[in-house]
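ok so I'm stuck.
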Amino acid sequence: MKTYYPSYYKNFVCIADKCPITCCQEWKINIDDATYKHWCQVTPPADTPIQYPKLSDYTSTREEQRVITLDKQKKCPFLREDKLCRLVLAHGDGILSETCTMFPREYHDFASHQEATLMPGCPAVLNLWHAQPQITFPQPADFSSVSKDKELLFQVREYILQIIQCPDYTPELALMECFYLLSELATETLSPSLISDYFSPETLTQLTDTITAMDFSPEDMLYECNELLQDLAVNYQKEGLYQSFLTPLLNLATQISADSCQWDLCRKWQQFHIEWKKQEPLLRTFLSNEIFSDLLLPGGDPNSMQIHLQWIGMEYAAIRYAVFLAWLLSGREELHYKTVCDTIVILTRMTGYEDEDIYEYLENSFESLYWKWGYFAMILADV
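replied:
not stuck anymore, here's the structure
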């Protein structure tokens, strides 16, 4: 089976002890069954602060998954002060779980091929994109082993990628147009001619003109994104994860909810918006990667693609708003890359749900699993 890689993939190198947001801290590190069985037979390195008989004793079950039990500082017990791994130093890479071995690599196995990407929850990946944002994604060529319906889904994804990557669109406008088109396609019987018509230059021009002529409320957008961020963060706050990042943002979000914020948010948003637009090359690359890796999964259909685009849009809206709050608190006029990078890394870790959890979250948090276009557009309003 052929594996397809984005253009940036083979340039990735883990920066290990130089990583500013290590994946060995404040994150649930899954332990697969094979690793657990092996760990039942292996003693911990001698310099592990708390000594248990076997490596398996450092794991626990959370939400029906076996994970490494973090220490009081929310760190992996095998993480040294110099950010190197005690397990690797003592036993080599082969001792690691599948999660630790693979991250930030991600693979999806389709009937016709395999696709590889890197996840944005790693700062080194963001640094790659920041240094060279003009990345390309492969277009699978052989669909002889899949049905025509499945092949059409890849065509839809390719059209959406083209819109997201086009510099003529802001990331927000691109997402709004793609969500409208995908929502409409989900109600139709797909065919090559139908897809070509939906993504034709004439249709896209008409859609662009219609959306850009709309009058969106910055107050509504800010209020809803404020609620979204608080909702996404509530479980992490309860568990004491990402506190140095989340606490100041959530304190400000609480003030905004109580109408006790010291700033004129709409005026500040206009100032922030100028700085945010300077990050568009990186943001476009980030969204393109999310579309390639998460819009269409094995076994997917138009309805699941719509759900995944909702999630990507919500993720982007939460990131943008969290960066806005961080920018406010910094007191600086300029928006620094580090603020954007750190926010994308942490928020994508927080929203990196499995499919089942995504559906559960959307069903529990919104009136309907499938959003109306108006709500999607409201949280992404480019105002």
